[in-house]
Design brief:
disordered C terminus; Rossmann fold; 314 residues; 4-stranded antiparallel β-sheet; Alpha-Beta Plaits; 6-stranded mixed β-sheet; elongated; alpha/beta; 10 helices; 14 strands
Protein backbone atom coordinates (compact mmCIF):
# COMPACT_ATOMS: atom_id res chain seq x y z
CA UNK A 1 0.00 0.00 0.00
CA UNK A 2 1.54 3.30 -1.12
CA UNK A 3 2.18 5.79 1.72
CA UNK A 4 0.15 8.99 1.86
CA UNK A 5 3.13 10.88 3.34
CA UNK A 6 6.77 10.15 2.65
CA UNK A 7 9.80 12.03 3.94
CA UNK A 8 13.09 10.53 2.77
CA UNK A 9 16.35 11.62 4.46
CA UNK A 10 15.10 15.19 4.82
CA UNK A 11 17.35 17.92 6.21
CA UNK A 12 16.31 21.56 6.57
CA UNK A 13 18.35 24.42 8.02
CA UNK A 14 17.49 28.00 8.86
CA UNK A 15 20.86 29.71 9.04
CA UNK A 16 22.87 27.84 11.68
CA UNK A 17 19.76 26.20 13.14
CA UNK A 18 19.07 22.64 11.98
CA UNK A 19 15.28 22.30 12.00
CA UNK A 20 15.26 18.74 10.60
CA UNK A 21 18.20 16.35 10.34
CA UNK A 22 18.04 13.30 8.07
CA UNK A 23 14.38 12.61 8.84
CA UNK A 24 12.60 9.70 7.16
CA UNK A 25 8.91 9.07 7.83
CA UNK A 26 6.27 7.02 6.03
CA UNK A 27 2.55 7.32 6.89
CA UNK A 28 0.11 4.78 5.39
CA UNK A 29 -3.48 5.61 4.42
CA UNK A 30 -6.35 5.48 6.90
CA UNK A 31 -4.44 6.29 10.10
CA UNK A 32 -4.15 9.16 12.55
CA UNK A 33 -0.43 9.89 12.90
CA UNK A 34 0.53 12.17 15.79
CA UNK A 35 3.81 14.10 15.53
CA UNK A 36 5.00 14.96 19.05
CA UNK A 37 7.86 17.02 20.42
CA UNK A 38 8.82 20.25 22.15
CA UNK A 39 8.65 23.69 20.54
CA UNK A 40 11.45 23.91 18.01
CA UNK A 41 11.53 20.14 17.47
CA UNK A 42 10.81 20.48 13.74
CA UNK A 43 7.11 19.57 13.62
CA UNK A 44 5.89 22.70 11.82
CA UNK A 45 8.87 22.66 9.48
CA UNK A 46 8.02 19.12 8.39
CA UNK A 47 4.44 20.18 7.66
CA UNK A 48 5.54 23.23 5.67
CA UNK A 49 7.87 21.06 3.60
CA UNK A 50 5.07 18.61 2.84
CA UNK A 51 2.81 21.45 1.67
CA UNK A 52 5.52 23.02 -0.47
CA UNK A 53 5.66 26.16 1.69
CA UNK A 54 9.37 25.48 2.30
CA UNK A 55 11.88 23.35 0.42
CA UNK A 56 14.25 20.80 1.93
CA UNK A 57 17.99 21.38 1.72
CA UNK A 58 18.47 17.64 1.31
CA UNK A 59 16.11 14.72 0.75
CA UNK A 60 12.61 14.56 -0.71
CA UNK A 61 9.04 14.93 0.54
CA UNK A 62 5.99 13.39 -1.13
CA UNK A 63 2.27 13.70 -0.47
CA UNK A 64 -0.22 11.34 -2.13
CA UNK A 65 2.59 10.16 -4.40
CA UNK A 66 3.44 13.69 -5.58
CA UNK A 67 6.69 15.55 -4.98
CA UNK A 68 6.08 18.53 -2.69
CA UNK A 69 8.54 20.72 -4.57
CA UNK A 70 7.12 20.17 -8.07
CA UNK A 71 3.41 19.52 -7.42
CA UNK A 72 2.60 22.11 -4.77
CA UNK A 73 -0.73 23.28 -6.20
CA UNK A 74 -2.01 19.76 -6.84
CA UNK A 75 -1.17 18.74 -3.29
CA UNK A 76 -2.89 21.75 -1.72
CA UNK A 77 -6.01 21.02 -3.75
CA UNK A 78 -6.25 17.49 -2.33
CA UNK A 79 -5.15 18.16 1.26
CA UNK A 80 -7.00 19.85 4.12
CA UNK A 81 -4.81 22.00 6.36
CA UNK A 82 -5.52 23.68 9.70
CA UNK A 83 -2.80 25.86 11.22
CA UNK A 84 -2.33 26.86 14.86
CA UNK A 85 -3.72 30.34 14.08
CA UNK A 86 -5.76 29.87 10.89
CA UNK A 87 -6.13 33.06 8.83
CA UNK A 88 -9.84 33.81 8.49
CA UNK A 89 -11.56 36.89 7.06
CA UNK A 90 -13.04 38.51 10.15
CA UNK A 91 -15.55 40.66 8.25
CA UNK A 92 -17.27 37.59 6.76
CA UNK A 93 -19.88 35.40 8.37
CA UNK A 94 -19.27 31.68 8.78
CA UNK A 95 -21.61 31.11 5.83
CA UNK A 96 -19.87 33.67 3.61
CA UNK A 97 -16.39 32.31 4.18
CA UNK A 98 -17.63 28.86 3.16
CA UNK A 99 -19.19 30.33 0.01
CA UNK A 100 -15.89 32.08 -0.77
CA UNK A 101 -13.82 28.91 -0.27
CA UNK A 102 -16.25 26.87 -2.38
CA UNK A 103 -14.99 28.71 -5.47
CA UNK A 104 -11.70 26.81 -5.23
CA UNK A 105 -13.22 23.33 -5.01
CA UNK A 106 -15.63 21.07 -6.95
CA UNK A 107 -19.40 21.31 -6.53
CA UNK A 108 -20.82 20.08 -3.26
CA UNK A 109 -18.21 21.83 -1.13
CA UNK A 110 -20.52 24.41 0.44
CA UNK A 111 -23.24 21.88 1.26
CA UNK A 112 -20.70 19.70 3.07
CA UNK A 113 -19.24 22.77 4.80
CA UNK A 114 -22.68 23.78 6.13
CA UNK A 115 -23.26 20.22 7.33
CA UNK A 116 -19.99 20.35 9.26
CA UNK A 117 -20.91 23.71 10.79
CA UNK A 118 -24.13 22.16 12.04
CA UNK A 119 -22.25 19.15 13.38
CA UNK A 120 -19.99 21.51 15.36
CA UNK A 121 -22.98 23.51 16.66
CA UNK A 122 -22.02 26.68 14.80
CA UNK A 123 -24.46 29.28 13.48
CA UNK A 124 -23.69 30.11 9.85
CA UNK A 125 -24.89 33.74 10.21
CA UNK A 126 -22.32 34.60 12.90
CA UNK A 127 -19.48 36.96 12.03
CA UNK A 128 -16.02 35.44 12.23
CA UNK A 129 -14.90 38.42 14.33
CA UNK A 130 -17.51 37.54 16.97
CA UNK A 131 -16.43 33.92 17.35
CA UNK A 132 -14.38 32.55 20.22
CA UNK A 133 -11.04 30.88 19.53
CA UNK A 134 -12.69 27.47 19.81
CA UNK A 135 -15.43 28.41 17.34
CA UNK A 136 -12.86 29.84 14.91
CA UNK A 137 -10.97 26.55 15.12
CA UNK A 138 -14.16 24.68 14.25
CA UNK A 139 -14.74 26.95 11.25
CA UNK A 140 -11.16 26.32 10.08
CA UNK A 141 -11.62 22.57 10.48
CA UNK A 142 -14.92 22.68 8.56
CA UNK A 143 -13.24 24.60 5.73
CA UNK A 144 -10.41 22.06 5.63
CA UNK A 145 -12.72 19.02 5.64
CA UNK A 146 -15.52 20.17 3.34
CA UNK A 147 -13.88 18.85 0.16
CA UNK A 148 -13.37 15.51 1.91
CA UNK A 149 -9.57 15.52 1.52
CA UNK A 150 -7.59 12.31 1.34
CA UNK A 151 -5.18 13.82 3.87
CA UNK A 152 -5.93 16.22 6.71
CA UNK A 153 -2.95 18.05 8.26
CA UNK A 154 -3.42 19.74 11.62
CA UNK A 155 -0.61 21.87 13.10
CA UNK A 156 -1.29 22.46 16.82
CA UNK A 157 -5.01 23.02 16.05
CA UNK A 158 -6.24 22.72 19.67
CA UNK A 159 -3.74 25.11 21.28
CA UNK A 160 -5.58 27.34 23.77
CA UNK A 161 -8.96 25.64 23.38
CA UNK A 162 -11.06 24.62 26.37
CA UNK A 163 -11.05 20.89 27.24
CA UNK A 164 -14.51 20.12 25.81
CA UNK A 165 -13.85 21.79 22.44
CA UNK A 166 -10.42 20.15 22.30
CA UNK A 167 -11.95 16.74 22.94
CA UNK A 168 -14.65 17.25 20.27
CA UNK A 169 -12.07 18.51 17.81
CA UNK A 170 -9.72 15.55 18.23
CA UNK A 171 -12.42 12.89 18.35
CA UNK A 172 -13.72 14.07 14.99
CA UNK A 173 -10.41 12.78 13.59
CA UNK A 174 -11.54 9.23 14.38
CA UNK A 175 -14.41 9.68 11.92
CA UNK A 176 -11.98 10.81 9.23
CA UNK A 177 -9.68 7.79 9.60
CA UNK A 178 -12.68 5.45 9.80
CA UNK A 179 -13.51 6.52 6.22
CA UNK A 180 -10.03 5.44 5.05
CA UNK A 181 -8.60 8.95 5.02
CA UNK A 182 -5.39 9.99 6.76
CA UNK A 183 -4.70 12.55 9.48
CA UNK A 184 -1.31 14.05 10.34
CA UNK A 185 -1.64 15.76 13.70
CA UNK A 186 1.00 17.89 15.42
CA UNK A 187 0.01 18.60 19.01
CA UNK A 188 1.18 19.28 22.55
CA UNK A 189 -1.96 17.71 24.03
CA UNK A 190 -0.40 14.31 24.55
CA UNK A 191 -3.11 12.81 26.76
CA UNK A 192 -5.79 13.83 24.23
CA UNK A 193 -3.76 12.66 21.25
CA UNK A 194 -3.38 9.27 22.92
CA UNK A 195 -7.14 8.80 22.59
CA UNK A 196 -7.16 9.15 18.81
CA UNK A 197 -3.70 8.34 17.38
CA UNK A 198 -2.90 5.09 15.59
CA UNK A 199 0.80 5.85 15.23
CA UNK A 200 3.23 8.35 16.76
CA UNK A 201 6.37 10.05 15.50
CA UNK A 202 8.52 11.74 18.14
CA UNK A 203 10.76 14.60 17.00
CA UNK A 204 13.34 16.14 19.31
CA UNK A 205 15.76 18.83 18.19
CA UNK A 206 15.09 18.03 14.55
CA UNK A 207 15.78 14.31 14.88
CA UNK A 208 13.15 11.62 14.53
CA UNK A 209 13.70 9.39 17.55
CA UNK A 210 10.67 7.11 17.37
CA UNK A 211 8.10 6.06 14.75
CA UNK A 212 5.74 3.31 15.77
CA UNK A 213 2.15 2.29 16.20
CA UNK A 214 0.89 3.70 19.49
CA UNK A 215 -0.46 0.33 20.59
CA UNK A 216 2.89 -1.38 20.04
CA UNK A 217 4.89 1.42 21.65
CA UNK A 218 2.83 1.23 24.84
CA UNK A 219 2.73 -2.59 24.87
CA UNK A 220 6.47 -3.06 24.50
CA UNK A 221 7.72 -0.15 26.65
CA UNK A 222 8.44 -0.49 30.38
CA UNK A 223 9.40 2.19 32.86
CA UNK A 224 12.28 1.04 35.08
CA UNK A 225 13.04 2.88 38.33
CA UNK A 226 16.18 1.98 40.25
CA UNK A 227 17.44 3.68 43.42
CA UNK A 228 21.18 3.17 43.79
CA UNK A 229 23.01 3.43 47.14
CA UNK A 230 24.56 6.78 46.14
CA UNK A 231 25.10 9.01 43.12
CA UNK A 232 28.52 7.50 42.36
CA UNK A 233 27.34 3.86 42.08
CA UNK A 234 27.38 2.64 38.49
CA UNK A 235 24.01 1.66 37.08
CA UNK A 236 23.59 -1.83 35.60
CA UNK A 237 23.34 -2.51 31.86
CA UNK A 238 19.73 -2.42 30.73
CA UNK A 239 18.72 -5.48 28.68
CA UNK A 240 16.52 -3.90 26.04
CA UNK A 241 16.34 -0.79 23.83
CA UNK A 242 16.50 2.36 25.93
CA UNK A 243 14.29 5.19 24.66
CA UNK A 244 15.26 7.51 27.51
CA UNK A 245 17.39 7.53 30.65
CA UNK A 246 16.90 10.23 33.28
CA UNK A 247 18.95 10.51 36.47
CA UNK A 248 17.72 12.23 39.63
CA UNK A 249 20.66 12.04 42.02
CA UNK A 250 20.97 8.38 42.93
CA UNK A 251 17.62 7.46 41.33
CA UNK A 252 17.57 6.37 37.70
CA UNK A 253 14.53 6.14 35.41
CA UNK A 254 14.60 4.36 32.05
CA UNK A 255 12.01 3.93 29.34
CA UNK A 256 12.90 0.59 27.77
CA UNK A 257 11.47 -1.28 24.81
CA UNK A 258 11.43 -5.07 24.90
CA UNK A 259 12.87 -5.19 28.42
CA UNK A 260 14.18 -8.52 29.71
CA UNK A 261 13.07 -7.93 33.31
CA UNK A 262 14.32 -11.28 34.63
CA UNK A 263 17.79 -10.62 33.30
CA UNK A 264 17.81 -7.13 34.86
CA UNK A 265 16.67 -8.52 38.23
CA UNK A 266 19.46 -11.08 38.12
CA UNK A 267 22.03 -8.39 37.27
CA UNK A 268 20.92 -6.27 40.21
CA UNK A 269 21.05 -9.23 42.62
CA UNK A 270 24.54 -10.19 41.39
CA UNK A 271 25.78 -6.63 41.90
CA UNK A 272 24.14 -6.30 45.32
CA UNK A 273 21.82 -3.55 44.09
CA UNK A 274 18.19 -2.97 45.15
CA UNK A 275 15.48 -4.52 43.00
CA UNK A 276 14.20 -2.16 40.31
CA UNK A 277 10.54 -1.18 40.05
CA UNK A 278 8.63 -1.81 36.83
CA UNK A 279 5.61 0.05 35.49
CA UNK A 280 3.72 0.31 32.21
CA UNK A 281 3.87 3.98 31.15
CA UNK A 282 1.39 5.92 29.06
CA UNK A 283 2.37 8.00 26.03
CA UNK A 284 2.84 11.16 28.08
CA UNK A 285 5.21 9.37 30.49
CA UNK A 286 7.33 8.15 27.56
CA UNK A 287 7.46 11.57 25.88
CA UNK A 288 8.28 13.42 29.11
CA UNK A 289 11.17 11.06 29.85
CA UNK A 290 12.55 11.64 26.35
CA UNK A 291 12.14 15.41 26.75
CA UNK A 292 13.93 15.35 30.11
CA UNK A 293 16.87 13.47 28.60
CA UNK A 294 16.92 15.90 25.67
CA UNK A 295 16.92 18.86 28.08
CA UNK A 296 19.81 17.36 30.04
CA UNK A 297 21.82 16.79 26.87
CA UNK A 298 21.06 20.37 25.79
CA UNK A 299 22.49 21.69 29.05
CA UNK A 300 25.69 19.70 28.45
CA UNK A 301 25.87 21.05 24.89
CA UNK A 302 25.52 24.60 26.21
CA UNK A 303 28.77 24.19 28.14
CA UNK A 304 30.66 24.02 24.83
CA UNK A 305 28.55 26.32 22.72
CA UNK A 306 25.17 28.05 22.32
CA UNK A 307 21.99 26.44 23.58
CA UNK A 308 19.94 24.47 21.10
CA UNK A 309 17.40 26.78 19.51
CA UNK A 310 13.89 26.12 20.83
CA UNK A 311 12.05 29.08 19.30
CA UNK A 312 8.47 28.18 18.29
CA UNK A 313 7.58 27.70 14.65
CA UNK A 314 10.41 25.40 13.58
Amino acid sequence: MKPVIQLSHVTKRFGKTVALENVSLSVPPGVVCAVLGANGAGKSTAIRLLLGLEHADMGTTEVLGMNSRTHTLEIRGRVGYVADQPPLYDWMTADEIGWFAAGFYPSGYQQEYLRLLQKFDLQSHQKISALSKGMRAKVALSLAMAHRPELLILDEPTSGLDPLVRREFLESMIDVSAEGRTVLLSSHQVSEVERVADMVAILLNGKLLCVESLENLKRTTTEVVLSLPDATTASPAIPGTSLAHVKFGHEHVWMVKELDSNRLLESCRSAGLPEPQFRKPNLEDILLAMLREYRRDSMFTAADGPLIDTSPGL
